[in-house]
Amino acid sequence: MDDYKFLFKVVLVGNAGVGKTCLVRRFTQGLFPPGQGATIGVDFMIKTVEVEGEKVKLQIWDTAGQERFRSITQSYYRSAHALILVYDISCQPTFDCLPDWLREIEEYASSKVLRILVGNKIDRDDREIPTHVGEDFAARHNMYFLETSAKEADNVEKLFMQIAEDLMEQARSKDLPRYDTSTANIDSRTSTIGDSSCCGKLI
Amino acid sequence: MEEKEMSKFVTQQAYIDGKIRALSKMIPQLKIIHKDAESLVTTINHISESSEKISGKIRELDTAREKVEECQKRVSDLIDLELCSQGVQKAIYDEDYEQGAALVHRFLSIDQSVVKQTASDFEKVAGVLKSVRTLQDAASQLREIVKHKFGDAVKTQDLHSIERFFKIFPLIGMHEEGITDFCQYLCTKLEDAAQKNLQTALNTPAGDKRYPVIYADTLTLLYEGVARMVNVHQPLIETYYGPGKLIAAVNILQKECDNQTRRIMSEFCKTRNINKKMTQINEISRMSSSSSFSKLEKIDPKDLDVLIGEMTLMHSKIELYIKFVKSKITTDLDVGISDLDERSKNIDKLEQLIKNSQVSQSKHELLGYYLRMEQYYMEESITKAVNLDTAEQGQHTSSMVDDTFFIIRKCIRRSISSGSLDGICAIINNACRVLESDFCNILRSKLKQGYPSGYLDLTQAYNVLQSSIQQGRLQPGDTEVARTAFVVALNNADSCTYYVDALCDRVMLEIEQAMPTMKENDRGKLESCLSGLSSVTATLKDVIEYGLQQLRASAIKPRVHPWIDSFMSINHEMTEDELSAYDAGETFVQTLIMNLESLLAPFKEVLTPSNYDSLVGVVTNEVITRFEKIVFKTTFNRLGGLVLDKEVRSLAGYLTTSTSWSLRDKFARLTQIATVLNLEKVSEISDYWGDHDGALMWRLTPSELRNVMALRIDFKIEDIRRLKL
Ligand SMILES: Nc1nc2c(ncn2[C@@H]2O[C@H](COP(=O)(O)OP(=O)(O)OP(=O)(O)O)[C@@H](O)[C@H]2O)c(=O)[nH]1
Ligand SMILES: [Mg+2]
């Protein structure tokens, strides 16, 4: 039996080829997959981490960036506790598409979802988006910001651990009983699986 | 003595002399033996030497034999070479290509380097080189002829020759060309058939029974055609070209299959107006999400129903075809390629082949269209169901619940039939969103209207209503309509929780039946999405709770409070006579129970059992909290306490039997208060308080207990204070 206290859903979105799958595999399997093919539909991975001595289960949904999978991927926004929006620092178009992604998040995700902007591939020397430009964008849209390299394992662990810590803090601060005791014990073992209304009540 | 010894010695001497003589006679014999032994050793050495020599000889013999064999093989090769070279020209001349190819095949199977070696070893066999040259020439000649003849055969549709040359290709080392040319020929056949089928499809009149699924039919014909081709030719390819070659064949067939799929898809999109519909749907959802009333022409979900059905069918056909190709080729590779590295390379090739195929592209496109339309269908149909909501008399719930879950089940079922797990998950996610946001919001907003409480008791209202309706005098007034709407909404929320649970169970079962070989990861995906759906019940329970609080505020609290408050107008410092008089009349609790009965009874008929139980719970809470407050505002003597104790007990009895779950626990505090007020004297409390068997599980704190005791006018404050609690 899993014995985790918290379960959070983390969804990665962003243009095709920005490195979402590589980030996830770096974090969950500790490797940089050579010749990673484009994701079809949506992939699903789980990693349990420990935060302040508590087991936290992260359910990571790695969505396909290609347009034709949009109707599949959009359906996962709503139940997300955290959304990671990824662009490629060496590819201007992936940055230019961010407003479109935000619109999509606005439309489908819970308004209280934790949002993180990630500029990936900082190991590359053909950078097109300076760090401060990404930072500004994130600040303007009320998002966390982090630059990573899935290839060199830079900031990847930090990205997901930060999310786990933040979500746990949120979950704890609203750890007041939602219903009276008769229903509360349904949720007591794990705090809210896919329960988006809990998201709605965050903060 | 000495003499005796002496004589003994003398007799012995003769004996000893004899022995010595005998011994000296043996000496020459010993010498001989010694010599013999020495010669034996020499002999043995000789033998061992020669046996070593012999085994060396044997080894030499072996090598020699090998050489002879090799030589024989070379000779036989050379003879064959000679024969081949002699025969091949004749065979070609006679157009006996099988023979020619067999000879070339024999030639090709001879180790060319050895042949050359032989030729240089024996200069005199100059003819060897000539033979080789002849054969090489013949081989390339034959290759050209066969390729050409095959082409001719294809042109003239000479099936016999096509098959004939197809079998010759591998003999003359043209495996790749053979498969390519042959499959290209098969492609032309595929194309012809597919074109015909598509034309038939396009000519199908709209009234035809198959018209609504004609593109699914056409795709089916295409894929069945390819599958048949693969099945028919796989044994041929395996026999003449060897196992493990199927992937090369399918690689070529797939290109034509892709072309035809693209054609069918484009006709499908054109005829079924896919692009226009997609634009319209996207437009509509954009408008409605920005919550402005659109003047857009809406698509009736019913009009999409058939199309959605066709799309899922098409998708499932593509899925089936891809599965077929995968399993066919994988089996062929497993049998044909033993080298694991090589095999996995080929498996990768297969993955790429499928991934990059138009068939996969079309599958994804189709799934995209399908999901978008299914989502629209679900949302619009549910909106319709909500708008057409009707409540039948005598039913707890209204039609929207049944209808909504019917629609959701239909959509999920349809997604299952598409064969795409990602599709199923997306539809479940969408259903979850529709239920949790749209649907629950509708229920909530209905409950938000509140439960109007008129000046009439509900019983009276009902009676008036019943008789008036029966006499045809009165339409149910606004209040009644609003009340019914409220009650129905509350019941709808409750029954939805059962629907959701049943839906989740059923869906899991159906998916497991439809996809018995689900991968572990896919199962995880599915379970996560389903758990999202089942957690909709939590939101529904929130809605119910919200409704009950509405009910409490408008219908329960304002009525229950005055009933309880009347307790204060009764004197609880009674004499025996007063007590008898009180008991003889209608007591407080009798009135209260009657009132509660009149409050609850109408609800019992109109609420679902579970909602009714919850309502009784709410009423009980209200009664108890108020009662406790009022008790603290009253003073008692012993008899007054006795009355209270009796009354609390009968109240608890009444309310507890009103529900299916026990409310006794809720009464614990009030019961204990009554017990305290019913004590004979202060010290009697020690029967109930403390660490012994008769002690109670107290819900009152010591200071609360003292406060309660202080309500008894006959209990002395000092006695109470002195209690050790
Ligand atoms: N240099 C460098 N290359 C990276 C990094 N992360 C990913 N890549 C490369 O970028 C390409 C795309 O990576 P994926 O992880 O497949 O991209 P994705 O965002 O999952 O793409 P979709 O699944 O199509 O949406 C691959 O060739 C990776 O090798 C990185 O940190 N540094
Ligand atoms: Mg990916």
UniProtKB/TrEMBL annotation, chain A:
The small GTPases Rab are key regulators of intracellular membrane trafficking, from the formation of transport vesicles to their fusion with membranes. Rabs cycle between an inactive GDP-bound form and an active GTP-bound form that is able to recruit to membranes different sets of downstream effectors directly responsible for vesicle formation, movement, tethering and fusion. RAB30 is required for maintaining the structural integrity of the Golgi apparatus, possibly by mediating interactions with cytoplasmic scaffolding proteins. It is found in: Cytoplasmic vesicle, Autophagosome membrane; Golgi apparatus, cis-Golgi network; Golgi apparatus, trans-Golgi network membrane; Lysosome. Its cofactor is Mg(2+). It is a lipid-anchor. Keywords: Cytoplasm, Cytoplasmic vesicle, Golgi apparatus, GTP-binding, Hydrolase, Lipoprotein, Lysosome, Magnesium, Membrane, Metal-binding, Methylation, Nucleotide-binding, Prenylation. GO terms for cellular component: autophagosome membrane; cytoplasmic vesicle; Golgi apparatus; lysosome. Belongs to the small GTPase superfamily. Rab family. GO terms for molecular function: G protein activity; GTP binding; metal ion binding. PROSITE patterns: RAB (PS51419), RAS (PS51421). It comes from the Eukaryota. It comes from Popillia japonica (Japanese beetle). This is Ras-related protein Rab-30. NCBIfam families: small_GTP. Its EC number is 3.6.5.2.
UniProtKB/TrEMBL annotation, chain B:
InterPro entries: COG4, COG4_C, COG4_M, COG4_N. It is found in: Golgi apparatus membrane. It holds the Pfam family COG4_N. Component of the conserved oligomeric Golgi complex which is composed of eight different subunits and is required for normal Golgi morphology and localization. Belongs to the COG4 family. Required for normal Golgi function. This is Conserved oligomeric Golgi complex subunit 4. It comes from Popillia japonica (Japanese beetle). The lineage of its organism: Eukaryota, Metazoa, Ecdysozoa, Arthropoda, Hexapoda.
